[in-house]
Records
---
Amino acid sequence: MKKTNGEKEKRDTKTKHPSRPWVDEDLKDGTDHPLEEEEGEEEWQGLEENVAHVPFTCERYSEAEMIKRSQTFYELLNKRRSVRFLSDEPVPREVIDNVIRTAGTSPSGAHTEPWTFVVVQDPNLKHKIREIVEEEEEINYKKRMGDRWVNDLKRLRTNWIKEYLDTAPYLILIFKQVYGRLPNGKKKTHYYNEISVSIACGILLAALQNAGLYTVTSTPLNCGPQLRVLLQRPANEKLLLLLPVGYPKRDATVPALTRKPLEDIMVFM
Amino acid sequence: MKKTNGEKEKRDTKTKHPSRPWVDEDLKDGTDHPLEEEEGEEEWQGLEENVAHVPFTCERYSEAEMIKRSQTFYELLNKRRSVRFLSDEPVPREVIDNVIRTAGTSPSGAHTEPWTFVVVQDPNLKHKIREIVEEEEEINYKKRMGDRWVNDLKRLRTNWIKEYLDTAPYLILIFKQVYGRLPNGKKKTHYYNEISVSIACGILLAALQNAGLYTVTSTPLNCGPQLRVLLQRPANEKLLLLLPVGYPKRDATVPALTRKPLEDIMVFM
């Protein structure tokens, strides 16, 4: 396939470029879709031949600036907490657009960009999502946890009720596209789609914190299929995370948790 | 288990707190370790009973500030590219410490913080890593790709040679802790360890970009076990990603790729 100009052509080229190191690894370990060698190879061939390389230039900070910037960014993100008590105060739509754009700058396996961010503002739709999530949660609590546990939770006011699904001005449901389609209609494996979309969500969380918005990272129990149908997403998309987004309530509380110190998470050699 | 004071006790409480919404989802879909119900329940019970909640307060920006901050952050991260041509110029260690600290602020399933960041600066160790990665890559290229493909790659100067593994001042190897140990020595499932560590890597990529450092997100082919042994990581840790970190070379190039526009990644309802 020869490269021509025009946006569509760009997109083809792009979505088929292999970020080499991504494409190879043992998919047994971690990712959710087996590598089909034929496809893999075919895919790569089309690609490398099509991709032009261009010079890369970037901003350069002084060492002092780098140290200061990295320290300031750490302090900003270290203030992030998962907040389950969100107010219904509206949030500017433009901010939501910007944080999703930011998440979209994430790297992805073979540059497939295998993510769909469904942003739900409609109150009726939010309530339907809440009903689906709470119904599954209630079943889960009662079936799997037993009475004693349920009572403990009641005592702690922690149960299957997820009020934030109604109150948060936005719910962001993040879907991973587990495969795509080649121009010839053949299935195109999305290597590392789950790792890629999770990395994009990490960047999204950083963008939310930078904007002064809060959320709780959640993976609703067994709701993926129902929510996918409710939100009319195609069969190649699977729900990965649900993020309610807004401002904390005035009386919001968080668990008294600490984070591991650097020496517990970093090994220097 | 009653809560007492002291850092160690804090840690126990903390590592056992369930971020509720994380703990439930269908592990069939995506994560790499089956939920063992007994353990799950036991774990949760210990936790909720121990966790105190505290009031949460946070900074509040004006809407104009939020829009500006979110726009500026998008522009910063949109300049990020995966760079395979890294110079050997040294990078301040303090910046590396700060970006790892920042990654450590990520949320994680049941707040297990199941990540280990191995930072390799030692030239001999970097070279050993390069030898392991390139050996596997060469096998992969020759076995799986066939002569025509290998020749295409030669023509494109893209092959199994990964010079950046020697030249980058630091290699960050990110391991996911697939399980931990309870005080009683029992295995403690780390729910969503791969999603959690990938989210932390997204935050790490944002921190690197903010500091003016570059990398290429890589998952070395079949090298996990060998690299784990080389770096003396325990059996519960699996290599997820390898990030060479440094400054781009003066003559660095990147593939001419574009990113999907907002309307291709966001659905608003």
---
Amino acid sequence: MAKKSSGRPTSPHYDIVIIGAGPVGLMLSTCLARWGYKIKHIDNRAEPTPTGRADGIQPRSLDLLRNMGLKAAIMAHKPAKVFEVAFWDPPKKGKGIVRTGTWASCPSFIDARYPFTTLLHQGLIERVFISDLEKNGVQIQRPWTIKGFTSDEKSNPEYPVEVNLEHVDGTHRETVRAKYLFSGEGARSFIRDQLRINITHKDPIQHVWGVMDGVVKTDFPDIKMKCTIHSKHGSIMVIPREDNMVRLYIQIASSTDADWNPRKTATEEEVQASAKRILHPYSIEWERVEWYSVYPIGQGISDKYTLDHRVFLGGDACHTHSPKAGQGMNTAFLDALNLAWKIHAVEAGFADRAILTTYEAERKDVAETLLAFDNKYAKLFSQQAPAATDVQAASEQTTEQTEDNDFIKTFKESCEFTSGYGVAYKPNMLNWSPDHPASSPLINPAGIKLRTGRLLNNSDVTRVVDANVVHLEQEIPLNGSFRIYVFAGKPSVTYKALKDFAFHLGSKRSFYSSYLRPDLDAVSHHEKTNPHSLFFTICTILATRRAQVEITRDVPDLLARYRDYIYADDRWDRRVPDAAAAAHAKMGLDQEKGGVVVVRPDGYIGIVTSLAEGSETVDALNEYFGTFCTKKLGDAMSQL
Amino acid sequence: MAKKSSGRPTSPHYDIVIIGAGPVGLMLSTCLARWGYKIKHIDNRAEPTPTGRADGIQPRSLDLLRNMGLKAAIMAHKPAKVFEVAFWDPPKKGKGIVRTGTWASCPSFIDARYPFTTLLHQGLIERVFISDLEKNGVQIQRPWTIKGFTSDEKSNPEYPVEVNLEHVDGTHRETVRAKYLFSGEGARSFIRDQLRINITHKDPIQHVWGVMDGVVKTDFPDIKMKCTIHSKHGSIMVIPREDNMVRLYIQIASSTDADWNPRKTATEEEVQASAKRILHPYSIEWERVEWYSVYPIGQGISDKYTLDHRVFLGGDACHTHSPKAGQGMNTAFLDALNLAWKIHAVEAGFADRAILTTYEAERKDVAETLLAFDNKYAKLFSQQAPAATDVQAASEQTTEQTEDNDFIKTFKESCEFTSGYGVAYKPNMLNWSPDHPASSPLINPAGIKLRTGRLLNNSDVTRVVDANVVHLEQEIPLNGSFRIYVFAGKPSVTYKALKDFAFHLGSKRSFYSSYLRPDLDAVSHHEKTNPHSLFFTICTILATRRAQVEITRDVPDLLARYRDYIYADDRWDRRVPDAAAAAHAKMGLDQEKGGVVVVRPDGYIGIVTSLAEGSETVDALNEYFGTFCTKKLGDAMSQL
């Protein structure tokens, strides 16, 4: 969408310049490339990450990757999957270590499609994104680096950012102009430094850790599990990997040590010798070490994610923490996704620039929660194991019955957070809580189990046109549109309400009709997701059996145009075994009367309303969208 | 494994020469290439199927493709999925057509992992196999054809087959020698003709059909479903396809017509006009026709699949039938798989050549069943729709309540067969039925739900080493080995039986120890499937919770060596909701005492025995394998 009409004639123009092709930069780039933006994306490495680095994909991130159509390519690499975490401690009596308990890494109280962590080399994950980018015409320019930038809306309101780029060997230089600049540079961010944005360190205690990826031969029985091992000789975390590899995190020093030295290091052999002592009486030998590194763990958070809403930071440039809860890549993905759709909403002409302020507010809050969690988790992990008398050390025969020590307790409490399903954005212009001072009594109907700022609950439904059983939450691809789920309840009950809803959607000043496609008449009848508007995709879910649905009779034309997004809520669900309409029930919506759920383009719920007869439901949504969209809607218009 | 030591020095030597790279040839080639054989594979087409042809992958075939690691590549093409079939007929009163019922294409009484038919262009499926072949060093030689062959074990017992090949333009020729020759040439088989093998035609009634693949614009509501439409103007079958395409089968003539002419044809326009009349009052327009063809439906079966067990036929070369039940490709796959493992078992030195006789016996019997089914199905489909008064024509409001007419009845009865789960090989040397005159009373224990000659039931279990929840029936890849499932019941109950079983497996004259790997001492400890023998992979399933399993304590060393194939039977299953050990229960095995299931390399059950203390269980398996393996086993040896 970039034009070359303004700015210095010699500078190429882009919608965005992205620095760094790690997870955060690649996610941002992939989204924006799919939505048609012109991107300059550089990275100072000659090629994608060859070894090591972050590699844990949490359950919710896997949902996201599936929604993007990238999951299969990742799974093709046969990653390791962590379903459970095992805890090992010194035995009550005697030497060595014993398993004191195991816990599901994504327990069944979380309704996850993929209740496991996926572990794969970061470079392979990066290549999946890079290959998708190439399909959309974006090549990462390597090895190039950023040398300077300016941002000035006054002198160039359309392309306010000027960026100077240079090949790492200094042989070539480029100056480009852009609407936005993004730093996905990692912890050492040139852009953040230039902006003089401070990092606040959360935790005074620091640790030095060794991390070693390799292929081992061992009789330790849990080598294919995620394990936390505390022994009298130190602590290890075991993380399984693809291709028979295993990653070991081994603590080398702590700022609570008498001789603390943050630059303390250890050789590969020293770390292996230490691992052998910790794992005793089990043996371990390395057949091959793929990667070994020593690094201090610090906990820091960037004070600002942007100064002018033109130059943004995300990922490790904003927050650093221990890698042990496997959150780095996942947090990076969600930073990028959050920013991507907001830039799109603004640049495509739907939303006010003001929504860009919610990026820092939402994502910094999540980072604070992550750091608070990581702090607690890392401290517990790094500290000396509790004395055997402090926990009811389980015998090898009864590995399950043990009273939780603090470490295990923290871990359990944090499962929802680490799975990614716990991310909750606070109420703001985009997320209308029950306390929102909106005038409509329809908002947040009684009994609702959905929470604005959180993900839609997972549910199975049957697609009407082809009888395919599908995952409702996955149906709309990541197309940058708001997702409007019309849970239509029982057709005999809601017939008029549904008709009224469609009528008022179609009326001239609705949020929907105010943003119709300019090429409306030329849209192919095969267009599925955006037949009317580029900003909305609508699903209609009827609380009846598929064979009883006749679309032309039961669904008003406007909604029926989304014929591939009409579903029967007729699948049995073990979580609501007695519900006649399980998807309605899982959302906490009345199975007869239904309700309307608006989900933001990134999958988080914006507002939930009743499905009422008359204009009220559309009025409520007009009020919601009217808060941040560029046009005056519905009543607001008539009141002018 | 081919050697060049015998035969004419000028002829290259292969293990097998395969003619034709359609589904049957590709499946055979892919299996044998993976298992290390040297293959000459030719096809007379310059490239894979460009359009049209068979395209239905049935549920059981999808299981097989997944087991081969090929499912993801097929699903990446976003095939259409058929979950339901809709029946349309003339209404009781008035004109046009109405939906008289729908039925699941793979109803829930079939315990399928993928209860749908997958529809994808045959050329795309072929390319998935071709790409796998290339990874194993096999290139299809195109466009080449076979000009002649001889087979004479007397003059060359090791490479008895000589084959003359020629480029289709006649410019190049080759003569090669092989152990086997396979015709996957399709209905017009040069090899079959040369062998003077007759085709027996099963059905005197013939039909001429038009088939058209294309993109349409229509208001017919079931255009994305599989439909059988009978109207006063003729019959159509609708099959959805990938990329918004739809396939229509339209009857043009029948031998029961007064003016029957098997060479009757129709233009594209005539067929479209006919389709419009049949679909009235719905409209249909073609945006694009990808492929159109007219062909007569004949039903034939080859009298023999081989004469000398060196030159074999498979796929369409053996059986032709109507394409409408979507069985062609699936039957071809299973022909090839059945032959592949038997050739492997013989050539790798495990089985007597006599097992090759079971290929024709097993597969011809399945083809007879298919033709009998297809005959009935095709006749019903082709005949004039039953008068509206003959069936309780359902109103549009109650589309479900209709008494089944013969057509629907046949369809329902045949679901198990068409899904692929109904394939049942009769008792023979490989499949020991309850009536087998074996001396062991352990065979086919009371309560067993498994049937020899059929597939293992699907079940979920938890892998012990990494706590991954897995599909047990998918765990062992298609490695050409027999799969021995030791359902170990409750460890406290079967401790001695399991120990005894492992002890006798390990004793010198057991079927297991008689076929150890020659490189046993050099096998990597990372080897998962074949650590001891190339002919066996063993799974051990304990009826207990995963956290309670300690492999070193609960599983004898020989079985524990397959550490990635040890499972806890601790997953809840809706089909046996009250079972403590669902997998045991689904197999009909005692949840305390367990049992042993031997599955052939193609996934069909060979024998089921109790898990008894002492030597009896291994004795029974020695007797089973002793019937067809190359060495004298166990007691048989001591009795000599």
